[in-house]
Amino acid sequence: MTIPVEQAKWMYVTMVKIRYFEDEMEKAYGEGKSPVFNIGSGPVPGEMHLATGQEPAAVGICAHLTAEDTVTSPHRPHHHAIAKNVNLDKMAAEIFGKVTGLGKGKGGHMHLFDPAVKFSCGGIVGAGIPHAVGAALAAKMKKKDWVAVSFIGEGAANQGAFHESLNMAGLWKLPLIIVVENNDYGISVPKSASTAIESNDKRAAAYSNVAGAYVKDNDPAEMYRVSEEAVRRARNGEGPTIIEIETYRYLGHFQGDPELYREKDEVPALREKDPIVKWKTTLRNEFSVSEQEIEEMEKRAKRDVENAYRFARESEEPSLESALEDVFI
Questions:
Q1: Which domains does the chain have, with CATH numbers?
Q2: pTM of the prediction?
Q3: In this structure, are residues 128 and 76 in contact, taking their beta carbons and an 8 Å threshold?
C-alpha cells in the first residue's frame, strides 16, 4: 500500500489543524474557571472533552471518505468533525454557544451536527452506532456505495448497542465501519479492568461477514491502510469492519479532570511518541516534502483555526427569541 503524496500531506495538515484547534479550545475553556473550577463559567460553559493525541484515528479513515459518507461521533468529537470537513467557523461558534453555530448554539460541544457532510454527534457510550447502522441500511436500500463510520471509545464496545448493531450489520452485510479508539481509559478505569478481551477487533469473529483490524501505536500510515481495506469492503457490499486503534489521550477524560488515576510520568512518555511529529518526519523522509512546504501547511492550518475562533468570539450572542427558534413545544 502506497499513500499518495497529496493524501499524506492532507493527513498532516489536518492533524495539525486538529491539534491547534484543541490547544486553543483548552485555553478558551479555561477562561473564567479559576481559581475555583466552575463548569458553568467562562465563554465555553459545560463539559469539555478534547482529543489531543488521538488525531490519527480520524484522519486515517476520513482520508477515504466523501461528503456522502456518514460519520457519527461520541462526546470527544472535534478531531472527527475536522477530518470530515465540518465547517470550522460554525463548529467553533456552536461550541461557544453562538447563534452562528451549526445548531444555532443550542447543542454545544457534545452535539455537533453538519448535514452538509453527513456528520453528527450521536451521544456517549456507543449511542451513535445505531445511527450509523441506519445510515448504512439507507445506503444499501438506495443502492448507493455510501459508507457509515461510527467512532467510539473502547469502553463503548462493552455496551449492548455495539453488539446489537454488529449483529444486524453483519446479517445484512451493511457498509458499516466501527472505529474503536482505545486510549486505555473509560473515564478513569483502565481497559484491563473493564474488558475481557485483548482488543475489540477480535469481536468480529463472533459475527458473520464482519472483519477486524488492529492498529498499533497510533500509527497514521497503518490506520490509513486498514481503513482503505475497510472502506473498499463496505463499498463493495462485503460487510462491516471493526477497527481498533491503540491511541493516546494526552489530556484528562474532561477538562478539569484531576487525573489521579494516571502515573506521574505517563503523559510525558506518551508525548514523546507524538504522531504529528512522527508524521512530519515521514513527510520529509518518505514523501520528499520540503521544510518550506511543511511550514506553509502549518501556517495554513493555524490561520484556519485562528479565523474560526475569531468568528466564534465575534458572533452574536443568543437572545430569548433565537433560543426559542426551531424549538417545538
A1: 5-316 (3.40.50.970)
A2: 0.96
A3: no
